[in-house]
Here is the input.
Amino acid sequence: SMTGFARADGQAGAYAWTWEVKSVNGRALELRCRLPAGMDAIELPARKLAAGRLRRGNVAMTLQASRAGGVSGYRLNAALLRQLGDLLDEAEALLDAAAPRLDGLLGLRGVIEAVEVEDSEAEREAREQAMLATLAAALERLAANRAAEGARLAEVLGEQIGEIARLTEAAA
Here is the structure.
């Protein structure tokens, strides 16, 4: 059979991910791969991995990944704060109003920016290899699900063939 579903979860460092692999009948092997932004580098190896394990079917591989603790700190967007200061000086002159307080300015979107941790090349490569290993596990589960469905279909077809033979014999 070519129909099946499997999922596998993985984790490395601050990242956690889930691969979902779905397969339906098809004459040839057609692969679709959906990846989160920034993880395009694993698409080609993922396709090669799937092509090495599957021969036929329309297969959709979806990776969902999240990063815990990705913010290492915050920084002040000085250019935006200066620009806001200039606008406020202009507004004060036009409206004859009191200047805003610092806490009001810091609360504006973009004045304070989150700074994310950057992974090293070695960390990124190790994470990608771990993700591909998780995909391999999902593909093995998919192959097992497809084989189990094929066995169930063979049993049903065997029963149908037996019934046809019995009816043919009875008709003769």
DSSP finds four helices and six strands in the chain. Residues 45 and 132 are 8 Å apart (CA to CA). The chain has a mean pLDDT of 85.
